[in-house]
Write a structure and sequence with these properties.
two-stranded antiparallel ribbon; alpha+beta; 4 domains; globular
Length: about 675
């Protein structure tokens, strides 16, 4: 059987052949690509004299076919999965883990790497080569190259088990999200819902075989508007409980034991490698160097944010009591009364703004913003195959018409897609034999779908989400490094959110909003007074939101900073950790941890704090744009050169100082959030 994954991709720009792919292609392709990668490794080992070029550079290029096939497969498992793909993931994941360990635990190969590492002072390497050498050497050491044979076998077993548990965790959360649907048949039950959301709920009910009713699911475009607008308090409570009890009900989709196993295995792995905890292991390769530094950072922020957050909750409690006689504000009340209070204080709510944010216009706005800053042009290209009809592929060119990247955009929820929003890549950027291989980048979101009568109209929060993910995409698309493992988003985890978070800032600026915010029916530009209200409302409940983010960072660090053996009851553990950040009464039987995909399925374990860490960087960096002009070409060129294009070629603090001219200052974030 011919296998399109193993042939040279003939599509434009050698993109993934989605139009030819069948599920049965993946397992044979992975097995064959592993054999090809093994040949690459044997070729490296066969060189009699190890050099930087024939060992370190060759390792960076080894297994390229396998990397591309794996990226295609695991991206589909996140964005367009089904039972067959999930089963394949359980078969493929152990093969990849074993292959990775075969390389990193190969003593002969490590001896060559170590020999070059010991000679690094004599090799006259440039900064990018030095970074690659250090990263390669550390990758071996941090993955067990110095272990005894018996300990290396233990490490292999742990890695296999962790890979499977992470997959199972994600499958459970997706299945829980997909299986919940709540129907109502009385129009009084959907009072408060905007017409567009009401229409979408009716459309969902019809699709699920109950025409004339309204359906609510746990997908973000259904759940978030329901919690924000539904007047029916009991219905909000029902949805809140469903969302916050995902995978903790003691049934076949329960993740509690999986979490305990993951934590135990991560701890065991860290100890095996000579670290005190999983957090110590992770933070060795971060800007924040230790759990103590992370906790100090979060506690300092909490000290400044909590008094403001408590005032905000007291204000909202009084507002709800005055409006509806609510004696005790509950968690399922917060979004609803917040929206009403925001409307009263700023004459602003999502439904006033939504008509100005038609998805197609916002996409054009994102493209124009990237064009004004970095000279990029985006053209849809129907010749590039896509994995779902909802996906659009674009060719990206620079101002001189040179090819920069392929960009995929995938915006609407569906059963095979996990919740949330993320950027990913199907192929990284690298240079080889004088040719610059350009990247294939994708962003995946879950936005409000068009209905029979209205296009997709975004909330302002969805607009900032799109800008956020596109900021990550720019980091990938503008990569300009020699080595793939240092390219694009291959940076320290607490630096990776800088390009994404800084890009959100443009959403609040008139000069940027004027590019795309126009009424979907009249074409009228967003009025100046609405923009001013958006800016005034930007700090609305920032204390509360800051404390909420800190609570997730503290929970993540609590799970990973020590021996998890004492964690026997997740409900009690989570409650105790989050006590100091709780601003509303805790709700019995709810558990956030069992759907905390960032740390148990994604790559944020012992790294969730990085969102707030990067906010310090982004607020400080954006002040430079504000000082010089948000589209100032000199500032934009410096940001592109020193941050976006540079990837992980040097330590992030060096790159940041090169852009900003100094160390970052946290005051910019505190000013922006209204905390000082």
């Amino acid at each position: 059987m011919s296998n399109p994954l193993l042939e040279k991709f003939s599509n434009p720009f050698e993109t993934a052949p989605f139009d030819q792919l069948k599920n049965e292609h993946f397992l044979p392709a992975v097995k064959e690509a592993i054999q090809l990668a093994k040949q690459d490794i044997e070729k490296i080992k066969s060189n009699p004299i190890p050099t930087f070029e024939n060992t370190i550079e060759a390792l960076d290029q080894a297994g390229d076919k396998l990397n591309v096939i794996s990226a295609i497969f695991f991206n589909l498992n996140s964005a367009e999965t089904n039972e067959e793909i999930q089963k394949l993931a359980r078969d493929i994941s152990p093969l990849l883990t074993e292959h990775s360990n075969d390389i990193l635990l190969d003593q002969e190969l490590f001896a060559r790497v170590a020999q070059i590492f010991e000679q690094k002072g004599e090799l006259k390497l440039d900064s990018e080569q030095q970074t690659l050498l250090e990263k390669t050497y550390k990758a071996f050491v941090r993955n067990g190259a110095k272990l005894s044979e018996s300990d290396a076998s233990k490490l292999r077993a742990i890695d296999q088990e962790l890979a499977q548990l992470s997959l199972k965790f994600g499958e459970h959360v997706l299945a829980e999200t997909n299986r919940f649907v709540h129907f109502v048949d009385q129009e009084s039950d959907v009072e408060g819902l905007p017409e567009s959301i009401k229409e979408a709920a009716a459309q969902t009910a019809e699709e699920k075989g109950k025409p004339g009713q309204w359906a609510f699911t746990l997908a973000f475009p259904s759940y978030i508007p329901a919690m924000t607008y539904l007047k029916n308090r009991e219905l909000r409570k029902t949805l809140f409980l469903a969302y916050n009890t995902k995978s903790c009900k003691g049934d076949e989709l329960d993740n509690q034991e999986i979490i305990k196993e993951i934590l135990e295995l991560r701890y065991e792995r860290a100890k095996l490698l000579g670290y005190a905890s999983h957090a110590q292991f992770v933070l060795e390769e971060r800007m924040a160097k230790s759990p103590e530094e992370v906790l100090q950072f979060l506690d300092d922020l909490l000290e400044k944010a909590k008094p403001k957050a408590e005032k905000e909750v007291a204000e909202l409690t009084a507002f709800a009591k005055n409006l509806d006689g609510i004696e005790q504000l509950e968690r399922w009340d917060f979004a609803y009364y917040s929206e009403l209070l925001k409307k009263e204080k700023y004459e602003l709510d999502d439904e006033i703004l939504r008509p100005y944010f038609q998805l197609e216009h916002v996409i054009q706005g994102v493209f124009e913003t990237a064009g004004k800053l970095y000279g990029l042009k985006f053209s849809p290209n129907k010749e590039i195959p896509v994995y779902h009809p909802d996906v659009t592929a674009y060719e990206v060119k620079d101002e001189n018409g040179n090819h920069v990247a392929v960009f995929y955009a995938d915006f609407f929820p569906r059963a095979g897609k996990r919740n949330g929003a993320w950027m990913t890549s199907f192929k990284g950027q690298f240079q080889l034999q004088g040719k610059d291989h350009r990247p294939h980048i994708s962003i995946v979101c879950n936005f409000t779908k068009p209905t029979k009568t209205k296009p997709s109209l975004l909330t302002f929060n969805e607009v900032t989400t799109l800008f956020h993910e596109f900021g990550h995409a720019l980091h990938g698309m503008l990569a300009k490094t020699k080595y793939q493992s240092l390219s694009g988003t291959s940076v320290f985890w607490d630096f990776v959110e800088l390009p994404s978070q800084i890009f959100e800032n443009w959403c609040y600026e008139k000069e940027c909003l004027d590019l795309f915010a126009k009424h979907y029916e009249t074409g009228e530009r967003i009025p100046l007074d609405l923009i001013e209200r958006i800016k005034k409302a930007a700090n609305f409940q920032q204390g509360y939101q800051t404390v909420r983010q800190i609570s997730f960072g503290l929970l993540d660090m609590a799970y990973h900073k020590g021996n998890p053996a004492a964690i026997t009851n997740l409900f009690e553990f989570e409650r105790k950790v989050m006590e100091k950040t709780d601003l509303l009464p805790r709700v019995a039987d709810t558990l956030m941890s069992t759907s905390f995909s960032h740390i148990f399925q994604g790559g944020y374990a012992a790294g969730y704090y990085s969102y707030k860490w990067a906010e310090v960087l982004d607020a400080d960096a954006f002040e430079m744009f504000l000082e010089n002009g948000i589209f100032d070409p000199v500032t934009a060129h410096s940001f592109e050169k020193n941050i976006l294009s540079a990837g992980g070629t040097e330590h992030p603090s060096i790159l940041y100082k090169r852009f900003r001219g100094r160390e970052p200052k946290s005051e910019a974030l505190l000013r922006r959030a209204g905390l000082i």
